Amino acid sequence: MALTNVANGQSARTRRLDYDSQRREWVEVPPPPAGTAPGDLHVVQTLIKEGDYRRALNAADTFLKKYGEGDPLHPDILVAKAAALVGRREYDKAYKILQLFFNRYAGVAATEEALRLQFIVAEAYLGGVKRQFLGVPLLSGVDRAYETLDEISTDYGESPLAEAAAKAKADHLFRTGEPALAELEYGRMLREYPKSRYHPYALRRSADAALASFAGVEYDEAALIEAEERYNDYMARYRAAAESEGIGLILDGIRERRAEKEYLIGQYYERTRHLSSAIFYYEEVRKNWTDTVAGGKAKARLELLGAPDPAAAAQPKSTGGSK
To answer: What region, left, alpha or beta, does residue 196 occupy, with left being phi > 0 and alpha being psi -120 to 50 degrees?
Structure first.
């Protein structure tokens, strides 16, 4: 491939400008000379910016054969080759190149760009792109995507992509019907990035995920209580947003469910003739959730069972005398 033709045909979009403090103006920096490692790397990067991924990939392979692994720019050409493969949607090959880069060169200047490409690959797998087996796209890439996102968020916590990686994993778990796991990921975001721009989003989503984890009034209510606490926290921190999103109605619905669960326990004890226990739970519902549907039903059951109404008993009795 004629690399010099590309280098000499530098487009305005790929020009490099540096600020000259003495002249107080931006000046164009000429590209590195063709035929050198910096010049040939510049050719590959220019082709990628112009969207000519096939030629960029060929130029990257030419670079690797010409200069070998010992060249100081070897990490940069690996990242450039991965970028060309991502551009061609050859995600499995890009992933392998990037893994090679991270195993050998993590921490060098090109690391952030490599992380960006890894993130793109992970999102492609989450979006339904299949991994290839014997050249045929057959295998789900979701597990590989989760592993990649975990590596970005855990091993490169200082990167701007770390939080985005945690969010991408949590969102995918939530969308695909894994609310309990999604709640854990959103919770991790809240702990590790308390001042993040995603904090309101993660807090709301963590509450949504906890609520979605509640299996029903016949089951443990821990998830329901957790959801209630997080919605209340969201309401306290971001009241305007919470009011516009109808969080108050969601909290009312949670109250109804919690009351219904307590009422069902009372019903169970009433059916099994443990009336003192039934009255205890009905009293709890009437006391704690008076304004719910279950609260009204509990009050009716207590009246049928002949249980005294504490509120009525607390009222002062009339003497019935005349002045």
So the answer is: beta
**Which of helix, strand or coil describes residue 195?**
coil
Task: Tell which residue, 22, 17, 65, 18, has the closest CA to residue 40.
Answer: 65
Domain count, the chain: 4
Cα maximum dimension of the chain: 117
Residues spanned by the domain of 137: 108-176
Long-range contacts of 295-304 (CB under 8 A, 24+ apart): 295/259, 297/263, 298/259, 298/262, 298/263, 298/266, 301/266, 301/267, 301/270
147 lies in some domain: yes
Q: Does any domain span residue 196?
A: yes
The closest alpha carbon to 158, from 94, 202, 200, 106, belongs to 106
Residues comprising the chain, all counted: 323
Phi, psi of 233 (to 5 degrees): -65, -45
Instruction: Report pTM.
Output: 0.79
Question: Is residue 1 located within the same domain as residue 71?
Answer: yes
22 and 38 fall within a common domain: yes
At 61-100, the pLDDT tens digits run 999 999 999 999 999 999 999 999 999 999 999 999 999 9
Within this chain, do residues 44 and 119 fall inside the same structural domain, yes or no? no
**Which of residues 145, 176, 207 is at a domain's end?**
176
Read off the pLDDT of residues 26-63 as tens digits, 9 standing for 90 and up: 666 677 888 899 999 999 999 999 999 999 999 999 99
Asked whether 191 and 228 are in contact (CB, 8 A), the reply is no
